[in-house]
Amino acid sequence: MAAHPGARGTARTATTHPQTATSHVPLVLSGANVVMPTGTVKDSQVIVDGTRISATAPENAQVTDLHGHYVVPGFVDIHNHGGGGASFTSGTPEDVLRGIHTHRLHGTTTLVASTVTGDMDFLTRRAGLLSELAEQGDIAGIHFEGPFISPCRKGAHSEELLRDPDPADVRKLIDAARGHATMVTLATELPGGIDSVRLLAEHGVIAAIGHTDATYEQTVEAIEAGATVATHLFNAMPPLGHREPGPIAALLEDERITVELINDGTHLHPASLQLAFHHAGADRVAFITDAMDAAGFGDGRYMLGPLEVEVADGVARLVEGGSIAGSTLTLDRAFKRAVTVDRLPVEDAVAALSSNPAKLLGRYDRIGSLEPGKDADLVVLDSDFDLKGVMRRGEWVVEPQLG
Question: CB–CB of 54/66 below 8 Å?
């Protein structure tokens, strides 16, 4: 596995639990710029007692001085296919756990595991395996990206395995996930698409519009039926046109839609990102990785479902056809790019990486901000916005090495 760049020399992966909530030693992380829902509070503190954030520090609390650093909520990734050389679609449970851990090293404390297109029998079996990891608390749910997508906008999905979104098939995936189906991406203009959106909404599963060739009008119809997410906006859908605005305009203008963005410098031109933030607003954007196996691992040949992928200079493309095939992004890099290249306010980056996806998942009562009572999921960044520490539920995943 490639070394963790954010930790080199200034942090280390915690192989034990140095000073953690579970060792009953409360912690005070003091002197940092703490990003709260109301804004950034300078020279502030975060108190960790057990697995939760506390409002008051017990007398026996140990103090860690974080002056010059930022403390932000743990990152929440709602669209992730793997990492550390492991695929969430085809790997063993141990492989999946390795991929999850890879992303935790980069600040992702909550992760939804995404699958790619496969045949229905395979996907239902996969849903069963991933649901066990959800029941253990290792993942926050399952996202099915395909097979209900348009062959015109298939991207890195096998065309032979695509199918129309028959509600009966969609229901099979929901049932196979045993209550852990979080999101399904559909081309809602296909036969059965609107009925499938309604079915998903009725079962509390996010209907995401993506890999679609829909018109503006068809997209509006899907939103009215209950769709609430744009899968990696701009990618795998018709471009914005002045006579045929297509799905992008409909997704940006509707306040009910959360738009996913892959902020890796490859999937989006900076102007497209700025367009999304300007029209959707910072409270409707969720940064995702759309990561595949190579994230946190390195260049080389990989499989994405049944398709072979070549990763060169950190960019993943299909060997046959050259389509972009997911990303090698980690969310710490997405954060740094947001504030240093895109010049977004730190608070907007935190919203896109933490609070917005937490709210979308219905978990904002536990994660997504540093308010007392919530899980002690947090990331420590230095003044250059490089990752220096990661805590999940009161335990250091990456232990800061300071002073």
Answer: no
Written out in words, the top-level CATH class of the domain with range 75-360 is alpha beta
SS3 118: coil
DSSP assignment letter at 291 = B
Residues of the chain with CATH 2.30.40.10: 5-73+368-400
Position 48, amino acid: V
Six token digits for residue 197 = 């959106």
Residues of the chain with CATH 3.20.20.140: 75-360
pLDDT tens, position by position, 187-246: 999 999 999 999 999 999 999 999 999 999 999 999 999 999 999 999 999 999 999 999
Q: Is the dihedral of CA 306, 87, 265, 219 positive or negative?
A: positive
* DSSP secondary structure letters along 308-344: EEEEETTEEEETTT--B--B---HHHHHHHHHHTS--
Candidate from 2-16, 136-150, 319-333, 360-374 with smallest mean pLDDT:
2-16
d(CA 130, CA 46): 33
Helix (H, G, I), strand (E, B) or coil at 153: helix
One of 3.90.600.10, 2.30.40.10, 2.40.40.20, 3.40.190.10 is the CATH number of 5-73+368-400, namely 2.30.40.10
The pLDDT tens digits for 286-324 are 999 999 999 999 899 988 878 888 999 989 898 988 888
Q: Please report, for residues 194, 208, 309, the alpha-carbon distance to residue 191 in angstroms, rounded to integers and kept in the order given.
A: 8, 16, 30
The DSSP annotation for 244-274 comes to --HHHHHHHH-TTPEEEEE-SSSSS-HHHHH
Place of tokens 């040949």: 301
User: Parallel, antiparallel, or unpaired: how do β-strands 70-73 and 378-381 relate?
Assistant: antiparallel
Length of the chain: 403
Active site residues per annotation: 290
Specify whether the backbone of 290 is left (phi greater than 0), alpha (psi in -120 to 50) or beta. Answer: left
Q: CA-CA distances (angstroms) from residue 74 to 35, 105, 212, 346?
A: 11, 11, 31, 14
